[in-house]
Amino acid sequence: MPIRSLSVLTALLHAYIALRLLPALAMLTPAWPLALAALAISALTIPLPFVSRGGERGASVGELLQWTGLISMGWFSSLFVSTLLRDAGLLLAWLASVLFGAAVPWHAVLPWSAMAVLVLATLVSMVGFLNARRTADVKRVEVPIHGLPAALEGFTIAQLSDIHVGPTIRSAYIQRIVDAVNRLGADAIAITGDLVDGSVAELREHIAPLAGLRARHGTFVVTGNHEYYAGAHAWIDELRRLGLKVLLNEHVVLQTRNVRGAQNDEELFESQLVLAGVTDFTAGHFDAAHASDPHLALFDAPPLVHTRVLLAHQPRSATLAAQAGYQLQLSGHTHGGQFFPWNLFVPMQQPFTAGLHRLHDMWVYVSRGTGYWGPPKRFGAPSEITLLTLVVARG
Fold first, then answer.
1. Which residues pair with 140 in a beta bridge?
2. Domain named Calcineurin-like phosphoesterase: which ranges (predicted)?
């Protein structure tokens, strides 16, 4: 949306909130102009993160404005939804009074409900800010796989997803994530897309701590839709320069055990795992050569290695992945909704929102994300560093 149109829309929505809340607040407290000032600041600052993000930000005024705009965006989102819910409640109360003669004490309901909207939106935004800025907790998930070879029992993958390095997520935030992952001692690390929100020139120094990730078999990355917004080819080169292994509709075969002296091919193959990665589900819209293809990612994979794991940014890749014969797909993209009410809209676009799900003979694990996008706010959808362990399915 053009910045001018966004500014006009934002101003109109703030005017709606002001008309619905401020007259009622004036009935309750002489401090109601503070609410008017907060709404004015919010309306003026929300467009700022969309102005220009390239080049030198100068120290700090630019960053401060971006922070202010994004925090305002999160507060406004909760305020707008709460105002709509208040209006719906007031409408129901009015209908009850008209149809059933219910006595409604409007002199108390109107001002106190307006105050409740402001308090609720502010508290949710404060809690959401703290949730977003803390280092994600480790979520441990066991994935039971039928026919898993004994040599792969206990194989671990640490998954990071949707970090969104950008205006408010910088190198210190990334370093905390790297330190937390390295303490897990995972066999492999998977980054399932939407790593960045900006150009290589802008974010190179802030992404650099990822070079310190350590796992027995290395760190593997697939592209998300935001990599294509930010210049995917340049980012692929940069991530490879850092020592990360970017999988573009391709796979690697991981030898998980020392098989020197293996008695036969079966013993060799049972200790191997195919780890594949596809480009983002929408990548073909940006570059036809990057069209996502779970079947192509298995091209020339050893047919006797039956344990196959796919990294795919969007859960929507799961249908083709299940047809291709994977046992597990690791995805992100949804953020688990990040905060209300966006969690209600995720199922309209994606088959799974968060957690471990079954699709035919394949498991799909969807991370809620390790960072956040846009407003520094998470409420009801905690960020996570996921440690997945492959185990033999019982029964």
1. 387
2. 156-336
From CA 10, how far away is CA 165, in angstroms rounded? 26
Q: What H or E segment, with its residue span, contains residue 328?
A: strand 328-331
Q: How deeply is 112 buried, as exposed, middle or buried, from its count of CB atoms within 10 A (0-12, 13-18, 19+)?
A: middle
Encode burial over 49-61: b for 16+ CB neighbours within 10 A, e otherwise. Answer: beeebeeebeeee
Asked if residues 388 and 161 have their Cβ atoms less than 8 Å apart, the reply is: no
- CATH 3.60.21.10 segments of the chain: 137-392
pTM (2 d.p.):
0.93
Residue of 303, 322, 302 whose CA lies nearest to 312: 322
What DSSP state is assigned to residue 286?
Answer: T
In terms of Cα–Cα distance, which of 330, 336, 335 is closest to 156? Answer: 330
Digit-by-digit pLDDT tens for the chain (395 residues) are: 678 888 999 999 999 999 999 999 999 999 999 999 999 999 999 998 887 554 444 557 778 889 999 999 999 999 999 999 999 999 999 999 999 988 999 999 999 999 999 999 999 999 999 999 999 999 999 999 999 999 999 999 999 999 999 999 999 999 999 999 999 999 999 999 999 999 999 999 999 999 999 999 999 999 999 999 999 999 999 999 999 999 999 999 999 876 665 555 667 788 899 999 999 999 999 999 999 999 999 999 999 999 999 999 999 999 999 999 999 999 999 999 999 888 888 999 999 999 999 999 999 999 999 999 999 999 999 999 999 999 999 87
